Amino acid sequence: MSKYYKSSHIIIIYKKKFLLQKRDKYKKIHFPGFWGLFGGKNLKSESSIQGIEREIQEEINIKLKKPRYLFKLKILGKDLIVPREIQYFIKNVKKLPKSFNLIEGEDYGFFSFKEIHKLKINSFDLSAISFYHYNNIKKEKLIPKK
């Protein structure tokens, strides 16, 4: 199996809304101009948790304390040069730090689950948000027990 392109993304929830970033329109990035979760490629020397902590510091200038691991998504396909592995984390925040400042990306916003479906959004991140919403907010049993 080929080497995976490893990245970490985070679902941040504030006042029952999901924080999303509108990605820059650079051709060299995945999903340019789309909305998506904050995060990015892990450095070779760091774990997934270190990767998401660094990315959040770089992208919105906040230090996250103890984000919770949600799941891993492996993406394979003939259109991918290198298969992707995305580690998803979640963090509910009660208050936004004063240091919050968009450093990377065109824009950001807080969106309800319903509003997200009207956006041009990264399909991988939409899948993660949808899984979290139906499994943890709606409490639907998505995965059958053995």
Would you mind describing this structure in some detail?
It is a single chain. This protein has 146 residues and is α+β, with helices and mostly antiparallel strands. The chain has one domain (5-137): Nucleoside Triphosphate Pyrophosphohydrolase. The chain contains three helices and seven strands; from the N terminus they run ββββαβββαα. The protein has helices spanning 48-60, 113-116, 123-137; strands at 5-14, 17-22, 35-36, 38-41, 68-75, 84-93, 107-111. Strands 1, 2, 3, 4, 5, 6 and 7 form a seven-stranded mixed β-sheet that branches. A hairpin with an 8-residue loop joins strand 5 (68-75) and strand 6 (84-93). It starts with a strand and ends in a 9-residue tail after the last helix.
Supply database-style keywords.
single chain, 146 residues, alpha+beta, Nucleoside Triphosphate Pyrophosphohydrolase, seven-stranded mixed beta sheet, 7 strands, globular
